[in-house]
Amino acid sequence: MIKQEPKNARSKDDTCFVQRFVVPCAYPVCFTRGIFKAGNPILRRVMGPCAYGRPHRVIVFVDAGVAAATPGLLAAINRRLGASPRELRLVAPPEILPGGEQAKNDWRRVQHVMTQLGHHHLCRHSFVLAVGGGSFLDMVGFAASLVHRGMRLIRVPTTVLAQNDAGVGIKNGMNEHGVKNFAGTFAPPYAVIDDFDFLRTLDDTHWRGGIAEAFKVAIIKDAAFFDFLSRHAVALRRRDAGAMETLVRRCALLHLDHIRTGGDPFELGNARPLDFGHWAAHKLETLSQYDLGHGQAVAIGMAIDTVYAAGCGLLTSGERERIIHALAAAGLPVWSDFLLATSRRRPEILDGLDDFREHLGGTLAITLPRGIGAKVEVHVMDTAGLRHGPAGDLQRGLVLQRRVVLVQLVRSHGS
């Protein structure tokens, strides 16, 4: 609908029309096992019927870490996509590319993926299949979103964090000049397929990293889910597959629910509720040169904001203790020595607030828990309190020094 603005223009030649339209968006998020095994119908189902009387053309990119941890994966992909040549055509053998956070730091990878899409003359009706962790999906998804102004991307997330968070949303991102996700696009995938079999191949760091994102949504949105995570924290740390599958499903659905009902799927406003704990996490990742995993950094960021929220009276001391204890019991860190790094006699971690403010458009909006299962947005944080701890109104607020609150909590609950 085109609507003419009220007649308050300076002259008859100054006319303003407001163009409004709505584009519906829908994509399936499927949970399965053995996506590339014979007889699994999910991949063919999400692609839908062939268009224009010709088979679907597909190109596949695989995270090098996933390929190394899953012997026979490339052969299985070749067999599965080659089983119905009248329906699917693999335009090239699956290509292995580096994964991990470094995939998001190297623009040559983006250019390479784009070049491959062009070299094989893929069109907007072709499919890009990305198999890997969250950073790998970000990189391939970013490239695919730029070619032909957006291609059909099917994500096959292979880590806990990718399956319950990064892989199910609508964002792609690349890191640039020391800022996490400085460049990126909003581009909904064509489909997401969570294959639980991939989780068995993960090392402990990647297994536990995704648990942090589950705590993130539970603490600010779902008290019952937090209770589940607390009860099963040790089982999750010990790699209980049933508990993990429940965690992945519930966490993914909470993220999807927020995107669908939160009123701001493309983040045009300032609030980022699902970035609870992330202002510090993103800075910790860059300070560590990404040696610290995203999930582990988020856990530390949540610990910071949890203790800060308790100091502000938003959480009771008991709720604070429950959160810190549950994170530690699940094998997640709540402290890093990078919190001690200083620049110009100021803790470098506090620069994360400035980076976050800039990312949000100039107005700071930090999500803090208000009790367990609810949240509040604050636009000012007392950095003096963050630095100097129990003094003043913050009571037992976080201090960025080894001798107080967080370390005491870690020591009392174990790592």
Notes on the structure:
- The protein is α/β, with parallel strands linked by helices and 415 residues long.
- 42% of the residues lie in helices and 16% in strands.
- The protein has 16 helices and 15 strands.
- It has helices at residues 42-47, 64-69, 73-82, 107-119, 134-146, 160-166, 204-221, 223-231, 233-237, 241-261, 278-287, 294-311, 317-329, 351-360, 383-388, 405-413; strands spanning 2-4, 17-19, 29-32, 56-63, 88-90, 95-97, 127-132, 152-157, 171-176, 179-186, 191-195, 342-343, 346-347, 366-369, 375-378.
- The strands form five sheets. Strands 3, 4, 5, 6, 7, 8 and 11 form a seven-stranded parallel beta sheet that branches. The protein has a two-stranded antiparallel sheet with strand order 1-2.
- Helix 6 packs parallel to helix 10 (241-261).
- The longest helix is centred in the middle third of the chain and has 21 residues, at 241-261.
- The radius of gyration is 23 Å and the shape is globular.
Question: How would you concisely characterize the structure shown here?
Answer:
The chain is of the alpha/beta class. The protein has helices spanning 42-47, 64-69, 73-82, 107-119, 134-146, 160-166, 204-221, 223-231, 233-237, 241-261, 278-287, 294-311, 317-329, 351-360, 383-388, 405-413; strands spanning 2-4, 17-19, 29-32, 56-63, 88-90, 95-97, 127-132, 152-157, 171-176, 179-186, 191-195, 342-343, 346-347, 366-369, 375-378.
